[in-house]
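User: Please predict the structure of the protein below. I'd like the answer in structure-token form so I can feed it into my own downstream comparison script.

Assistant: Understood. Taking the following sequence of 330 residues as input:
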Amino acid sequence: MFSRTHRNLAGIAVLLAVVCVLPFVLRPYQLDFLIFMFINIILVVSYRFIAITGEFSLAHAVIMGVGAYASALLAALPISPWISMPLGGVAAAAIAYVLSFPLFRMKGFYFLIGSFAAAEAIRLCWVQFNDPFGGFRGLRRIPVLEIDLGELLYIDLGAPVPYYFFALIVGIVCLFVMYRIEHSRYGFVFHAVHHKDTLAQSVGVDVRRFRTIAFVTGGFFAGIAGAMVAHYVTAINPGLFGLKQMLFVLVWVLVGGMGHFAGPIIGVTVLSIIDESLRGLDELRPGFYGLVLIATVLFLPEGLVSLPRKALQWSTWLWNRGGETLVKRE
């Protein structure tokens, strides 16, 4: 008999095998879709770091943009993109740290609105200053990633297939690190701060400090995701990191389920696939997302991650109901 851990590891191994085969059977535009889905998975899981402390931010997409702009500007100096990308994550974490001082003086609705105002202030700086941010047009001709070992090996990661594997590896590493953080002492405190912040404070937990740590950690990984976008599409502008992108992140997290690490991953995967199937019906997309969000809140408040458990409960209830009906008839 295999334990639950062994079954989970076997399932992950099978999934990774399938994912590694996909680039050789899919078309280029389908690979583009998967690459951006991997990047969005990093983004939504990093956003969950903030959400599990009890606060919802509207600044996460802009913090992602900070990573993208920082990496692009550093690569233009020129600094190798292999160095500028992690530095983009550091820049995003630094901005998140600066924003934490005014934002964590607020809670709830005020934190939400404050984060939106701070994000718009940063985004408007990108719009207003042509030098160095490029204004409305943004930055172009951002260097792509390359592996150049002279005559031994050269790989242009600007092509879909190599970048697919790069995004997959970075995504796995980021998810593993975030998973380990959540299941460390810090992660347990994050959850405690969310559910019982007053009680946690009464036993000596610095609630503001741990919320800041979660905010900065999430900002770092969001910055990495932004840098990945910048060096793949080689052009960025302020519109890529606006309120629309932020609303997508919120819907993905809420629909997938915030209470479990896999929730946002399921949310972004399922909704991205459905959204892609609606290509050509752009006028229906906002309505679709609204219906999905309403249905999730009404019938699956814990998100899609709870669907198997809910399905089992519903089937058990129907089975018991059918048995009671049969007994009454007899």
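That's the full token string. The two ends are 41 Å apart (CA to CA).
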